[in-house]
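Quick illustration, no need to memorize.
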Amino acid sequence: MRIYLDQLGCRLNYSENNTLAARLTAAGHQIAPSAETAQVIVLNTCAVTAQAVSRSRSAVRQLHKANPDARIAVTGCYATLQPENAAALPGVSLVADNREKEMLHALLEPWSAELDDPDAIARLQPDGTPFAPTDNSDDPLHRTRSFVKVQDGCNNKCTFCIVTALRGESRSRTLSEIVAEVQALAADCVQEAVLTGVHLGSYGRDLPGSLAADLKQLTTALLTETDIPRLRLSSLEPWELADGFFDLWQRWPDRLCPHLHLPLQAGTDRQLRAMARRCTVASFRRLVDDARAAIPDLILTTDLIVGFPGETDDDFEEGLAFVEELRFAHAHIFPYSARTGTAAARFGAQVTKAVKKERSQRMHGLLERTGHAERQRFVGDTRPVLWEGQGQPMDDQPGLLLWSGHTDNFLRVLAHAPADDDLRNRITPTRLDELHGETLFGTLLLEEIRNADFRR
């Protein structure tokens, strides 16, 4: 079968699609480059907010419109939250909740007897002509960066969060299994592995007996037992980190990426208690101070909720000041969305939509200023950039290609290079010259690049 994989939401969904793509390919199926060329479409959905649920429904309709003949399998958090609604959407032939997701490749297998064998009919575009193999960095099997799911589920009961109910209790993979996966990625010339999980900081605590571990032990093992050039951590709840956790960046400054995403959610102790967050303003501040002391070039990002039930004007102003103090480079800002099945949906003093919109705009404005200042401090520095995708031709300079990539501390960089210099999936030293919006424009240090022995 020709199968197209798509996803919404968190990095965990990207990791799960990577795993599914590998399993489907091992079973003899082909990963299609677009919905239009597929016989089967798999959509891994999100339900973290009401807006995410709406986007998931819309994505199904758009995929069906793009290819009315394809069978659509819907999985993920929306499929778990509203399976009957998902099943009623046009084109949907299978709904697999999060408990069934690990077996999705097997659930799809019976369709292969009914659908054409792609090896027999060749790979065709909608007009009947063969299409060329894709070399897209977003293709799950051809990434410069790969997401590695190390655990699923969460034991915390944040009062706003539906994901705990949809993903279940925390469940970790064994350390040896993860090490083997990351080493396989390194052998396949993937340059960066990103560790993901619903509650990444709780990794390993649920494993029995001698298998028990923690995130510090896992990170240490990956950096000592694999050849992956870069290791990045995704979202980390600001508690349960082992003593000396940030010392890891001093041991491996060239491989452990100096970027942390620490979800704050609210900037007052009163709101944090109402959310059942296991931190205080003071403990979060100490965590950030410790991280920045150990990791000088750290870029810090976060998640924030505005308009949580009971949030007063004073709460918002106090939280705004705290967010400004912490100098986040970026934040995912969510106007509070009441989710049936969560404690906060039953709270009184719900904030009006108009107030949430106004507070969201102010928070976005603040983050634009702090983000600009954080990026600006790196102008003039030289940092390693991992180049992604393909170089794009420049109309006004025909001998050059424009490349896009990310620094180790996850700053977006654009730079041009001679058309005969293929930078894809290379990490190169790049001088950061100018900042425009959220993007840095850099200059490649070509002599250093050409003299280096790059992993391909």
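The longest strand covers residues 382-393.
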